[in-house]
C-alpha cells in the first residue's frame, strides 16, 4: 500500500470514528469533544494501536501529528474570530488575575507534592511547571458547543489562557536557563522583551494593516481568495509567535483570529474556516490526543503518586484560576466555570512533560504519572463545564436544549457558533 493510500485509510477511519463518537457523546448529554477524545484512546496504543498496523509506515505518526497541529491552529483561529477585541480588553483584569493564580497555585502544589514523594528540588519544581500548563483548546471547543464562548466567562477564559501560555513559557525558559547555569544571563530578560514585543506588533499590525489587506482581497475575483489570505495570515501569526515571540503557535493563531474578527468580511472568513476545520482537521486533532497516550505503559507502583498528582492538578487549576477570577470581579459560579475551563492539560501538558524526560528532569515513573494526569484532566473538563453551565441555565430558569449541540453554522445576526460535532 502506498503512503498516500495509508494516509487516506487513516484519515477515513479517524474521521468516521470521531463523528460517530461525537454523536454518541451528544446523545448521552455530553459535549462531542469528549467522545472524540475517548475514541482516540481506543484507536491508540492503549487498545487498537491504529498507527502501528502492519501495513502502516511509522512516518504516518508524524503525518497525523502535523494534521493535528493544523487542527488546533484552526480551532484557536476560529475562537479568535468569534470574539471582539474590545470585549477581550474589557475582561483584561479577570484574565490576568485568573491566568497568574492559575499558574502559581499548581506550580506550588506540584512542587510540594514532588517533595512529599521524595523527589529532589529540580524534579519537584519541574513537576509543578508541568501542572501549571493549560490546554484551552479543549475548553474553547466545549464553550463553542454550549454557545457561551462570548460570555464573560468565555472571554475571560481565553484571555487567562493567553496569560497562562506566556507565564508557563517564561517560567520554563527561566528554569531551564538556571539549570544550565545561566542565572545571570541577559537571555531571560530577552525572553520577556520578545513576548511583549510580539504581542504589541501583532496587535498594531492587526489594527492598522490587516483591515486594508482584507478589504482589497475581498474585491478581487479570486476563488476563495479571502479565506486563503486569512489562512496565510493565521500561519504567519503562528510562525511569528514561535520564532520571534518564543510563544506557542496557537497563541499567534488566536491573535490572528481576534484581529480578523474586526473586519466587515468576518462572516465570510468564519464560514470557510468552519467548513475546513470541522470537516477534517479539528476531529483529527482531538482523536490524535488519544492516539498519543499509551495506557499500557502505566505502572501500578506509581498509582498513589498518580492519584495525588491528578488531585493536585485539578485542585490547583480550579482553585487558583477560580480564585483569580473571583478577585477579578466574576461571581462565584462564573469563577467556578472559568477555573474548570483551565483544568485540561491536553497536548500542552504532554509537550512540557516531553521536555522534562528529554532533559533528564523527570524519570519514567514520573512521566507515566504525568501522562495519566494529562489524560484524566483532559477527559473530565468537558463534562464539568457542561454541568456548570447547565446549572447556570437552571438558575436562570432556562432549560438546557439539545439545539445547542448542532453542527456549526455561523449566523450573521448573532455572530455565534454552534457545536461542531
Provide an overview of this structure.
By secondary structure, the protein is mainly alpha-helical. It has helices spanning 3-27, 32-43, 59-82, 85-90, 92-116, 121-132, 136-145, 152-179, 187-208, 210-219, 225-243, 249-260, 266-291, 303-328, 332-341, 346-358, 364-395. It is globular. Helix 1 packs across helix 2 (32-43), helix 3 runs antiparallel to helix 13 and helix 8 runs antiparallel to helix 9. It is 74% helix and 0% strand.
Architecture blueprint of SSEs:
Layout (H helix, E strand, L loop, with lengths): L2 H25 L4 H12 L15 H24 L2 H6 L1 H25 L4 H12 L3 H10 L6 H28 L7 H22 L1 H10 L5 H19 L5 H12 L5 H26 L11 H26 L3 H10 L4 H13 L5 H32 L26
Helix pairs in contact: 1-2, 1-13, 2-13, 2-17, 3-7, 3-12, 3-13, 5-6, 5-8, 5-14, 6-8, 6-16, 7-17, 8-9, 8-15, 9-12, 11-12, 11-13, 14-15, 14-17, 15-17, 16-17
Uncertain regions: pLDDT < 50 for 5+ in a row? 398-421
Question: Any idea what the radius of gyration is?
Answer: 21 Å
Highest CATH level, the class? Mainly Alpha
Name the CATH architecture: Up-down Bundle
Enter the CATH topology name.
Answer: Na+/H+ antiporter like fold
Helix percent band = over 70%
* Overall number of strands: 0
CA-CA gap between termini: 31 Å
SSE string, helix = H, strand = E? HHHHHHHHHHHHHHHHH
Strand content: under 5%
Biggest sheet record: none
- Number of H/I helices: 17
Class inferred from helices and paired strands: mainly alpha
Shape: globular
Mean pLDDT: 86
* Number of domains as seen in the coordinates: 1
Amino acid at each position: 500500500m502506498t503512503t498516500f493510500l495509508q494516509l487516506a485509510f487513516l484519515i477515513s477511519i479517524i474521521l468516521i470514528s470521531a463523528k460517530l463518537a461525537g454523536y454518541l457523546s451528544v446523545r448521552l448529554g455530553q459535549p462531542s469533544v469528549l467522545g472524540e477524545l475517548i475514541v482516540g484512546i481506543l484507536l491508540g496504543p492503549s487498545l487498537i494501536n491504529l498507527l502501528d498496523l502492519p501495513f502502516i509506515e511509522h512516518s504516518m505518526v508524524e503525518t497525523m501529528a502535523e494534521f493535528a497541529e493544523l487542527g488546533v491552529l484552526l480551532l484557536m483561529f476560529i475562537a479568535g474570530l468569534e470574539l471582539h477585541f474590545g470585549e477581550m480588553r474589557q475582561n483584561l483584569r479577570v484574565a490576568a488575575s485568573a491566568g497568574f493564580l492559575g499558574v502559581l497555585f499548581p506550580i506550588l502544589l506540584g512542587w510540594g507534592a514532588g517533595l512529599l514523594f521524595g523527589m529532589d528540588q529540580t524534579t519537584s519544581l519541574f513537576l509543578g511547571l508541568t501542572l501549571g500548563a493549560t490546554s484551552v483548546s479543549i475548553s474553547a471547543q466545549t464553550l463553542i458547543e454550549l454557545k457561551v464562548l462570548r460570555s464573560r466567562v468565555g472571554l475571560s477564559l481565553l484571555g487567562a489562557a493567553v496569560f497562562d501560555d506566556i507565564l508557563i513559557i517564561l517560567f520554563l525558559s527561566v528554569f531551564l536557563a538556571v539549570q544550565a547555569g545561566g542565572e545571570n544571563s541577559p537571555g531571560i530578560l530577552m525572553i520577556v522583551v520578545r513576548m511583549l514585543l510580539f504581542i504589541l506588533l501583532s496587535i498594531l499590525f492587526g489594527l492598522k494593516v490587516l483591515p486594508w489587506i482584507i478589504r482589497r482581497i475581498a474585491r478581487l475575483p479570486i476563488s476563495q481568495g479571502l479565506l486563503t489570505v486569512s489562512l496565510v495570515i493565521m500561519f504567519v501569526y503562528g510562525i511569528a509567535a514561535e520564532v520571534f515571540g518564543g510563544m506557542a503557535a496557537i497563541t499567534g493563531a488566536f491573535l490572528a483570529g481576534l484581529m480578523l474578527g474586526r473586519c466587515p468580511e468576518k462572516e465570510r472568513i468564519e464560514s470557510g474556516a468552519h467548513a475546513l476545520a470541522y470537516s477534517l482537521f479539528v476531529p483529527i486533532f482531538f482523536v490524535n490526543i488519544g492516539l498519543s497516550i499509551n495506557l499500557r505503559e502505566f505502572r501500578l507502583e506509581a498509582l498513589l503518586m498518580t492519584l495525588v498528582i491528578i488531585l493536585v492538578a485539578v485542585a490547583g487549576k480550579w482553585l487558583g484560576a477560580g480564585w483569580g477570577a473571583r478577585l477579578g470581579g466574576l461571581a462565584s459560579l462564573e469563577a467556578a466555570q472559568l477555573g474548570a475551563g483551565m483544568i485540561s492539560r491536553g497536548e500542552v501538558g504532554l509537550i512540557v512533560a516531553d521536555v522534562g524526560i528529554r532533559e533528564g528532569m523527570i524519570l519514567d515513573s514520573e512521566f507515566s504519572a504525568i501522562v495519566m494526569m494529562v489524560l484524566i484532566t483532559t477527559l473530565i473538563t468537558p463534562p464539568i463545564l457542561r454541568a456548570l453551565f447547565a446549572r447556570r441555565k437552571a438558575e436562570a430558569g432556562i432549560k438546557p436544549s439539545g439545539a445547542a449541540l448542532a453542527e456549526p453554522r455561523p449566523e450573521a445576526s448573532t455572530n455565534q457558533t454552534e457545536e461542531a460535532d
